[in-house]
Specification:
Mean pLDDT: 89
Strand content: under 5%
Number of helices: 6
Order of helices and strands: HHHHHH
Radius of gyration: 13 Å
Distance between the termini: 26 Å
Helix content: 55-70%
């Protein structure tokens, strides 16, 4: 049996950002949690720490995570794997949980 290919964590986080931004209420919650202004999002999108924050936001809200995974036709575990990969890229000393 073939193993699933590793997700592209940055690409998946950008897709998650677009998903979050598509709904005003969800975007408002995200901006409130991160403390960013809407104008800061575009510049922040190239920062791996920001992309990790996007996936953190999804991971903290299981219904939102499941909705995103379904919309992208991904297993939720793929999002979790991308989150772990991005966390390791941002903080190599971080222990996987």
């Amino acid at each position: 049996m073939k193993s699933a290919p590793s997700p592209d964590p940055e690409g998946l986080a950008i897709a998650a950002l677009l998903f979050v931004a598509a709904e005003t209420e969800t975007l408002s919650r995200f901006l409130e949690v991160t403390g960013l202004d809407p104008g800061d999002v575009r510049a922040a999108a190239s920062d791996k720490r920001f992309l990790l924050a996007v996936l953190d936001f999804l991971m903290a809200d299981e219904p939102l995570l499941l909705t995103f995974a379904a919309a992208e036709t991904l297993a939720p575990e793929t999002v979790v794997a991308a989150h772990r990969m991005l966390r390791k890229a941002v903080d190599p000393a971080h222990e996987a949980y």
